[in-house]
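Extended Data, record Glycosyl transferase family 1 domain-containing protein
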Amino acid sequence: MVELVENFKTGIIAYKEPSSIAWGLNYILERLGRNKMGEKGNYLLKQKYNWKTIAEKTLKVYEKLVEKHKSSF
C-alpha cells in the first residue's frame, strides 16, 4: 500500500526494520498534525478505493477488451 501514501502528508513511509517503524510511530505520536494526516489518508483511500471507482475502472477494462476483440465476434 506504499503507493497510496504521500510521505508526511497522508502517512509515513517506513522501512521494514524495527527502528524505522518505531521512528515513524514516534513521529506521528509526537506531532499535533497527526489527525490531519489521518484525515487526508482516509480521504485518499475513499477516493481511490470505493465501489463506484472500482466499477468504473472495471467497466473501462471491459470496454477496451471489447474494442480490441470486436472483429472476433
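Summary. Residues 2-72 form one domain.
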